[in-house]
Design a protein that fits this description.
With 442 residues, the chain is of the alpha/beta class. 37% of the residues lie in helices and 30% in strands. A hairpin with an 8-residue loop joins strand 5 and strand 6 (108-112). The chain is elongated and about 125 Å long.
Length: 442
């Protein structure tokens, strides 16, 4: 049952009382017989506060429109509607909402309502910082009387929630859609010729073709240059493996690394499905947590998005030995494994390097790591004292150790992508297309 709106003094009324109190004391000291004026003024002010609260109007209904779904890092809109009766033009209702901290900083959203048609309306942006389900649990509405001395306030319990999904904004981007329409891995149902490993046909050589593809025997027989055309491999297996441990849950530019990795992976997965390859997701921390079957059609892309939404955030270190051995046992044929991970020092990366080295013996492994902008900033910062010198030396040492680990991976035959978070998706997509053209997966 909804309680009636409470009537409370505003800050202006409190300041007036605080200002009149010293005057009442001076009046009582100067003219003791006029002491009755002080309580009279207080009573008059109390009457004004009550009247101002009564003339503020009454609330018939308040509604909160919460978006059912949102994407991490993308803005969603929350709307509050209030039906106020007999509210004057000077009324400015304000609303505050309590929500899950993943939806708004501090778990609090504030907004001001303005007249709209027959109701008062206000909107506020929500920018989720983590995946999962975030509750919107409470709403408070306050509106002030015409004199600004009193306001009415109500509170309502809400049972709304927002499902926060992985961000797939790059998949919807016009640039990617144009690429899929016009590139050789586009939407047109045709045999894909020109590059790959499986011989398809001979075509007359044209300037710009790779000279290594010239078929000299056929060219000599026809007295014209002919080049071999190959069919690009399809039906390859691509597995996107996510380290969900502590290092990947650290924020970078406001969002956890794991969420930025998921966005890059889903973008490449969408292109891979359009190229008629098979895609699966694998997530692990102390133990494997998410392992999807291979998806073969772009119509099932939503299944990958739902599975990625289930990747949780873990404060502990990942178990690479258990996770990567489990993944290797699931794969019955040569596959492209895209591993998203991060590390802080060579010691914590030792097991990771050892287990990735075992995968390379049978599969193509692509290791994706985001460049640490904070470390680079500390190294290049101007020296202002001994403290900054110590920070720069420590950061430079960590950067060198990180480079050594990545170099070890390259020596093992792992392809390494290290790039800023806003370029990691493009770099991953380029690497996938390059590996596919080389025909190294099948």
């Amino acid at each position: 049952m909804n309680r009636p709106a409470a009537l409370l003094p505003t800050r202006r009324a409190v300041l007036i009382v605080a200002g009149l109190a010293p005057l009442a004391l001076l009046l009582a000291a100067a003219a003791p017989g006029a002491w009755i004026a002080a309580p009279a003024l207080g009573g008059a002010l109390l009457v004004l506060v009550l009247l101002d609260g009564l003339f503020a109007g009454a609330l018939e209904d308040v509604r909160v429109i919460v978006p059912a779904d949102a994407e991490v890092g993308e803005e969603a809109t929350l709307t509050v509607l209030a039906d106020l009766v007999r509210a004057g033009s000077r009324v400015r209702p304000e609303a505050a909402l309590a929500c899950d901290p993943r939806l708004a900083p501090g778990g609090r959203v504030e907004l001001t309502l303005a007249p709209a048609n027959e109701a008062w309306s206000g909107t506020a942006p929500l920018r989720p910082t983590r995946r999962g389900t975030g509750a919107v649990s409470h709403v408070w509405l306050r509106w002030t009387g015409p004199l600004g001395l009193a306001h009415r306030q109500i509170s309502r319990v809400l049972s709304d929630s927002v499902r926060v999904w992985p961000n797939i904004a790059p998949v919807r981007s016009p640039a990617l859609q144009i690429f899929l329409r016009d590139a050789q891995f586009g939407l047109i149902a045709r045999r894909i010729r020109g590059e790959g490993t499986e011989f398809e046909a001979l075509a007359e050589y044209e300037p710009g073709m790779d000279r290594r593809r010239i078929d000299w025997k056929s060219s000599a027989r026809h007295a014209r240059l002919f080049a071999k055309e190959y069919e690009v491999e399809r039906n390859n297996q691509i597995v996107f493996a996510f380290d969900c441990g502590q290092a990947m849950c650290e924020p970078i530019e406001g969002l956890p690394r794991i969420d930025r990795a998921v966005t890059a992976a889903l973008t490449t997965a969408y292109v891979a499905l359009k190229a008629q390859d098979r895609v699966a997701l694998f997530g692990f921390a102390a133990r494997p947590e998410v392992a999807t079957p291979f998806v073969t059609s772009s119509r099932d892309f939503a299944r990958l998005q739902r599975a990625a939404a289930g990747l949780d955030y873990h404060p502990g270190e990942p178990n690479f030995t258990l996770a990567l051995s489990t993944l290797a046992a699931r794969l019955q044929r040569r596959s492209l494994i895209v591993l998203f991970s991060d590390f802080t020092d060579p010691t914590s990366a030792e097991l990771m390097v050892e287990n990735v080295g075992r995968l390379v013996e049978r599969h193509v492994v692509l290791f994706v790591v985001m460049a640490d902008a904070d470390m680079a900033r500390i190294v290049s910062a101007p020296v202002t004292g001994m403290e900054s010198v110590a920070e720069a030396v420590t950061a430079a040492s960590l950067v060198r150790q990180r480079a050594l680990v990545l170099q070890r991976l390259r020596h093992l035959g792992v392809r390494v992508i290290e790039a800023p978070h806003d370029r990691i998706g493009t770099r991953l997509l380029d690497a996938y297309l390059a590996i596919k053209r080389e025909g190294r997966i099948g």
